[in-house]
Amino acid sequence: MNMTFDTQHLLRLAHDKSAKSKSELADIVVSLFDHRGDVLSDGERALMFSIIHNLVSEVEISVRRKLCERLADQPGTPYGLIKSLTEDDLDVAYPILTRSEVLKNEDLIEIIHLRAEEYQLAVALREGLDTQVSDVLVETDNPRVISELLNNQSAKLSDETLINLVHKSKEMRPIQGPLLHRSELSEDMAKRMFMWVSAALRTHIVSRYHIDSIEVDRLLERAALEGYATTMVEKSRNDSELIKSLRDRGMITVDMMIQTLTEGETPIFFAIFSALTELSDVMVRRIVFDKNHTSLAVVCHALGLGELDFATIFRKTRRVAPGRARATREEVNMALEMYREIDVIEAESAVELWRRDEDYQLAIKAIQDKL
Known about the structure:
This protein is mostly helical.
């Protein structure tokens, strides 16, 4: 495409109301950002932003998504344009919500108060959240939102908020693991949590804070006296009965699967994953532990999961896989780009093959060849 900035041509396209002109105009604007975004004059940039503001509500979602991807990293984008884009569908607004530096704290707080959980989760992913926004995220009392915030190691948390979270963790099990992995958590706070967390998290507390055996015995005795003596072994014996109970009550759902994964209940997560996909336990583990995340993306697509749920599962299963490092933001973004390209019909066909235990790698290769 010719990258000459032809002002008159852009204005003619902007005044033409046909779908073809709108599509051509959007393509030109995106291409200009890709190839000349840093060398446009102030007048050219102002014209482009004006065109985008008038255009964005009239083009299809895939075009709006491309525009948001470019604008999210443009600090000079007009505030009014960025603010309006946060009100679009999540698939469109996601880059703005997670990355745009144009948004102010009061904008983020308004989004948390007024928008759905998925928008709150996107805000919780932002780099360098300050304590004011973090406090409002904690006030949602939503375990998924708070867990996402705690997993964002760049987010700042006040001492008062940490104390509040320790108290909440008594009843809010999903946040226990992420909270105990925060660098700001003091030893005294962690010892308080020792009373009610799982055996695995107790081991983490002992290891991280180098608590000696005498202190461990004292804490265990105190936990028993306070009624927090349930062990992971006792709980695991009830896992199979729990799955049956959940199935009988219609609770084998995607939300329940994600919740158990977030809470660190890996055996139950695998069991629900297997029940939802009708895949064998061996196949499910193969998919989750596969370093090539295409297979996980294919299954999530076949289940009809949105991008945010897939990103959550992708990140959290990385922690389940032995010897696998946490997913970086770049890896998550690459996985999401790949996820958008997968055809749902082909994903369902691949999963059907796996149900019959046919060639796993063959199905993956067929999907990848089309991406």
